[in-house]
Amino acid sequence: MRQSERCWLSQASFAPASDQATATWHNQSMSTLRYSDTPITMQPKWNADGLIPAIAQDIATGEVLMMAWMNEEALRLTLAEKRTVYWSRSRQSLWRKGETSGNVQHLVAARLDCDGDTVLLQVNQIGGGACHTGRRSCFFYEPDRQDWVLGESERE
Amino acid sequence: MRQSERCWLSQASFAPASDQATATWHNQSMSTLRYSDTPITMQPKWNADGLIPAIAQDIATGEVLMMAWMNEEALRLTLAEKRTVYWSRSRQSLWRKGETSGNVQHLVAARLDCDGDTVLLQVNQIGGGACHTGRRSCFFYEPDRQDWVLGESERE
Question: Range of B90's domain?
Fold first, then answer.
């Protein structure tokens, strides 16, 4: 197996995948690769407001915790301080995640995507969770006909 | 253990977490919850262009595959057809993921986040991968001083 056919982060970084999932992964990865078309370097592409979306993922469980925005300074500080620093669009200021709540996100790995317009941050989430509601993840509304609703399991 | 202290999707949907990760999860989830503050319903918040960011995650491995954008029609079609349909900002048209490549994403679960401005889609990724480069995931550039670079393991 070539290195390039493996997960981009070591499987050991995630919760272990089942054998079946791993086998499927490798079979799929061996088809029609166009790796050589890929530029060697990439720069973040900032939107009209100078921001880029950043996805935070729990590296222990794989769960997607939240999506927030970063300006150039926030991304630079995140990489330098090894903890997530976002840009609060509502407050128009830097937002050191967990500064008041204690729910800091320690950065383990960062990746920029193929066209440079989204960042993925793999983190160790400290404290109760990433969400301001106290939940582990911000993604908890389920589709239900016209609405998105709080699932039964998410109600007190 | 209350339902609300559990992962928002069944652990069985993901690759199994290690016992240690699961224990950490539950301990953290028991602190300072503010579940009762949470609205029962939520609506997607479209940006100035009528779009919302959508994160696609491989439900078998937990890997974050890509981030793309949806307009109202794309999100409606995604939920109705149980496969991802995005809005291509470059082509200004609906983009049925995998229509030409065969790399369709079958939708397993969709979640809207706490403030309604991001969608998470958990999918079964068919074919070689989500990325136009042939890679499984679009997130493969690593930070390296001033640049983001293609890791050694990602080169042909």
Answer: 52-128
User: B75 and B19, same structural domain?
Assistant: no
What is the C-alpha separation between B53 and B88, in angstroms, rounded?
12
Same domain, A69 and A124: yes
* Chain A, chain B: beta-carbon pairs less than 8 Å apart: 262
Same-domain check for residues A33 and A63: no
Shortest distance between the Cα of B107 and any Cα of chain A, in A, equals 12
What digits encode the pLDDT tens for the residues A68-90? 999 999 999 999 999 999 999 99
Q: What is the ipTM of this complex?
A: 0.80
Do B60 and B27 fall into the same domain?
no
With a cut of 50, say whether residue A54 has pLDDT above it. yes
Contact A114 B132 (CB under 8 A): yes
pLDDT in tens, B94-135: 999 999 899 999 999 999 999 999 999 999 999 989 999 999
- The answer to whether residue B140 sits within a structural domain is no
> Which DSSP string corresponds to A9-53?
S-GGGSSPPPHHHHHHHHHHHTSS--GGGS-SEE-----TTS-EE
DSSP state of B83: B
What is the count of structural domains for chain B?
A: 2
pTM comes to 0.80
